Amino acid sequence: MTDDEKNRQAGLTPGSNGSGSPAAGMVVFLGVLIMLAGIISTLYFCFGFDTGISTFNGDVSNLGLLEDRLVGVLSSLATALGGLLIILFTATRRK
């Protein structure tokens, strides 16, 4: 049996991406966007989010801002992980 016959039996048309769904490429693109948004926001919360407050005695750390930073980092990492999982699961379904 040739590859063309196998593809026809599987319901795949020539030029399809192997997933059987034309939207699979769009799902991967969405996963990449979600992952990039998570990575960029993680970098912001790690390096750009200021937790210090100026006082007469110098800068002190604000516990509320430290908590906001922690929550931001954790939620950003969860978002990046979600995007990665979308990419991986879509890629494994293509095969």
Quote the average pLDDT: 84
Order of helices and strands: HHEEH
Q: Please give the radius of gyration in angstroms.
A: 22 Å
Principal-axes shape call: rod-shaped
| Percentage of residues in strands | 5-15%
Number of helices: 3
The assigned structural class equals mainly alpha
Instruction: Report the sheet with the most strands, covering strand number, pairing sense and barrel closure.
Output: 2 strands, antiparallel
Q: How do the helices and strands line up, and which of them pair or pack?
A:
Layout: H1 3-10, H2 24-48, E1 52-55, E2 58-61, H3 63-94
Antiparallel strand pairs: 1-2
Helix pairs in contact: 2-3
Throw out a few tags for this protein.
mainly alpha; 68% helix; two-stranded antiparallel sheet; 95 residues
Kindly describe this structure.
There is one protein chain. The protein is mostly helical. The protein has a domain at 61-95. 68% of the residues lie in helices and 8% in strands. The chain has 3 helices and 2 strands, in the order ααββα. It has helices spanning 3-10, 24-48, 63-94; strands spanning 52-55, 58-61. It has a two-stranded antiparallel sheet with strand order 1-2. Strand 1 and strand 2 form a beta hairpin. The mean pLDDT is 84.
